[in-house]
TrEMBL record:
This is shikimate kinase. It catalyses: shikimate + ATP = 3-phosphoshikimate + ADP + H(+). The lineage of its organism: Eukaryota, Sar, Stramenopiles, Ochrophyta, Pelagophyceae. It comes from Chrysophaeum taylorii. Its EC number is 2.7.1.71. PANTHER family: SHIKIMATE KINASE, SHIKIMATE KINASE 1, CHLOROPLASTIC. CDD domains: SK. GO terms for cellular component: cytosol. Keywords: Amino-acid biosynthesis, Aromatic amino acid biosynthesis, ATP-binding, Kinase, Nucleotide-binding, Transferase. Pathway: Metabolic intermediate biosynthesis; chorismate biosynthesis; chorismate from D-erythrose 4-phosphate and phosphoenolpyruvate: step 5/7. GO terms for molecular function: ATP binding; shikimate kinase activity. One of its GO terms (biological process) is aromatic amino acid family biosynthetic process. Belongs to the shikimate kinase family.
């Protein structure tokens, strides 16, 4: 159970270990369990621009790890504030960023989480103090894939006036995203989220082989 105290409101979130779904290969599940063991409880944070697939890939990664829980910081902000992201942005971007920082700061002390973050979470230097308590992965789709995804599912994205805007947003933030521990390129439009999750797991396993994580505080 995660309890957030945000802007005077207390909000509880149930977090339970993921369960491998039907259709996930035995090899992928085995690799996921291996990664969960080698991460020693350290959280996995996914960063990237809107449309990069952080939520859907993060959920898949969580299920493959088996003993981790999945949370989405944007969803947690919405639940805590009882408003949609566009409604929160209507009160000013800084208002949203403050709420986002508060959520991240209250999530980071927990362990065994896969955390999908908002696209702009890298903009505040103070957020990196929370992100770097775990292992950070940059999901990096190419621009054509991003534009196709956003055209098919535009949703309510306050900073996106047109799908072509995502290229300039990504360019402005790339140097920040590249501070992540691991970069996972997404350049195959036919790749499924589960397949991306498999590649992410392999990439993180390679990183950990050279950079073993410390045991998080209990």
């Amino acid at each position: 159970m995660v309890m957030l105290i945000l802007v005077g409101a207390a909000v509880s979130f149930e977090v339970s270990p993921g369960v491998p779904r039907a259709g996930v290969s035995v090899r992928a599940s085995e690799q996921g369990r291996l990664l969960a063991e080698r991460m020693r409880g350290v959280n996995l944070y996914l960063v990237g621009v809107m449309g990069s697939g952080k939520s859907v890939v993060g959920d898949s990664v969580c299920r493959k790890l088996g003993s981790y829980a999945f949370v989405d910081t944007d969803a947690m902000v919405e639940s805590a504030m009882k408003k949609s992201i566009p409604e929160i942005f209507a009160e000013g971007e800084e208002y949203f960023r403050d709420a986002e920082t508060a959520v991240l700061g209250q999530v980071s002390p927990y362990v065994r989480l896969v955390v999908a973050t908002g696209g702009g979470i890298v903009l505040r230097k103070s957020n990196w103090a929370s992100l770097q308590t775990g292992l950070v992965v940059f999901l990096d789709p190419d621009e054509e894939i991003l534009e196709a995804r956003l055209s098919a599912n535009p949703g309510d994205r306050p900073l996106l006036r047109d799908t072509s805007d995502v290229a300039s947003i990504l360019a402005a933030r790339r140097s920040l995203y590249e501070q992540a521990d691991v970069r996972v390129a997404v350049d195959d439009p036919g790749e499924t989220p589960d397949q991306t999750a498999d590649r992410l797991i392999q990439a993180v396993l390679r990183f950990i082989a050279d950079n073993p994580p410390k045991q998080p505080p209990s």
